[in-house]
Amino acid sequence: MCLVGVVTQLDLKHPLNWPVGLLLVGDAPYSIYLIGPIVTTIIHGATYVLHLPAGATATQVVRGICFFALDIGGGILSWKYVEVPLTSRTKKFLTRYVPKESAHRPQTGLAPAS
């Protein structure tokens, strides 16, 4: 918790130029989270099709590296080409078809106080 506070204060007082890769990973965590099971299935399938020994240490290391690369890469691509466009379209739809709260107040059924 202290580390978060220190980094936040440093970032506010002295803006840092974060690497683009870290910024992408920071923007796409939900997509990275959602793509994980798909990547796991692909890697298990590839291990089975290629007849790789499942218990070998080298195979596990290669699978881990592939999972990490495909999960991060697939998550970023999913964020950029699926999540961002859908979020944009949803916002446009909501601003067009859903009335603003100040313009439309629901009836409570209570008489105004006098």
Notable traits:
mainly alpha; 72% helix; 114 residues; single chain
Describe this protein's structure.
By secondary structure, this protein is mainly alpha-helical. It has one domain (18-97). The chain contains four helices and no strands. It has helices at 2-13, 20-27, 29-49, 57-97. The mean pLDDT is 81.
Any chance you could write out the topology, listing elements then pairs?
Elements: H1 2-13, H2 20-27, H3 29-49, H4 57-97
Helix pairs in contact: 3-4
Summarize the structure.
With 114 residues, the chain is mainly α. 72% of the residues lie in helices and 0% in strands. It has 4 helices and no strands.
What would you call the shape? elongated
Average pLDDT taken over every residue: 81
Q: What is the strand content?
A: under 5%
Provide the domain count.
1
Number of strands: 0
Q: H/E element string?
A: HHHH
